[in-house]
């Protein structure tokens, strides 16, 4: 699927093989004073959580996104407490709140649905291909032509049936190259990371995800159009103009796409959102097409026991961009793969969901520092093998991160207790 996937390495194993290293290679977090705010973003009418909503400091690159339960944690430097914080998501009105009005914990943020009156929308065209061509031409104007440094929070998870069995996460140090450069490329370095694995539940199969942190930036399809937006593939899709939607308080054209029935190569289907004012790509949602699902196991699985049968049930991707100072930048990426394992020899049958998620939590245009090749995250790396086990509940310090949902937190707490007992017994 042209590299836009997490590759899977599936290993048969015993419980003793699953323990991660406890050694530390982390740099210490900077000693910067900050104040943390936490809460939940909900729909004002239905009271349901608003997932993957943007939570950001107005006029700043600092921010995070809500989790699967609409929960968030935002850490703000002490010297910026006079600012306002914004909350936004697809289909909702923006909400701006003074930080002084927020409590440190248990904030409930209610977002109202946003209707888009057609008479207020600038309708350039209802031809989806013409709109996409306009968006292509505007990429040098809409996105950074200068490189910058970014801080990203990254998380990988594996669920067996409904239970989390592995969690790994990190702060990333990212050199983000120019959108206009054809020779420079994004460089990702793991700054600080940790992991946990539920060995009891994973004593038959173990899943390792290959290339995660690097893949999360490859999913910036505006910079890496691949098999979706590149000129080589545009003719392989049917496009449909599907109306308008509001994102971050701005009107967007909605374009749906799917691979043409006569195209044999397995591709994608999805939805593209284009900002009506400047024709920037604001959001892209896509998934494997039906044809692609038939061969997805060959694309995804790098290694597995010979008699283990893998059926890929779905592969979905979400890419969000955010505007700041008239330039758009990558803000949030999520990829989720679901598949079923049938191992007749072991009488083993289970469904798994693997996911990666990355949010850019800060940016800096000064002091550019490209990571050396040996320190860069690579497509062949197994992220979970590069970070150490959970130990410190205050591990992230000043860094913004995506709040774990309740079920992930329960896994982390249980494994923390397990590690403490292991340390006591070893001493």
Please describe what this structure looks like.
An eleven-stranded mixed beta sheet has the order 13-14-15-16-18-19-20-9-10-11-21. It has a four-stranded antiparallel beta sheet with strand order 4-3-6-7, with no helix packed on it. A three-stranded mixed beta sheet has the order 12-1-17. It is 13% helix and 42% strand. It starts with 6 loop residues before the first strand and ends with a helix. The chain is globular and about 60 Å long. Residues 11-31 and 418-427 have low confidence and may be disordered. The chain has one domain. The protein contains seven helices and 21 strands. A hairpin with a 5-residue loop joins strand 15 and strand 16 (281-288). By secondary structure, the chain is mainly beta.
Query: Per DSSP, what share of the residues sits in E-state strands of 2 or more residues?
Result: 35-45%
- Summed up, the helix count is 7
Order of strands in the sheet with most strands: 13-14-15-16-18-19-20-9-10-11-21
What ranges have pLDDT less than 50 throughout 5 or more consecutive residues? 11-31, 418-427
Average pLDDT: 81
Sheet having the most strands: 11 strands, mixed
Count all strands and give the number: 21
Which radius of gyration do the C-alpha atoms yield? Answer: 22 Å
Helix content: 10-25%
Q: Name the structural class.
A: mainly beta
Distance from N terminus to C terminus (CA atoms, Å) equals: 49 Å
User: What kind of oligomer do you see?
Assistant: single chain
Helix-strand string: EEEEEEEEHHEEEEHHEEEEHHEEEEEH
Shape: globular
Q: What number of structural domains do the residues give?
A: 1
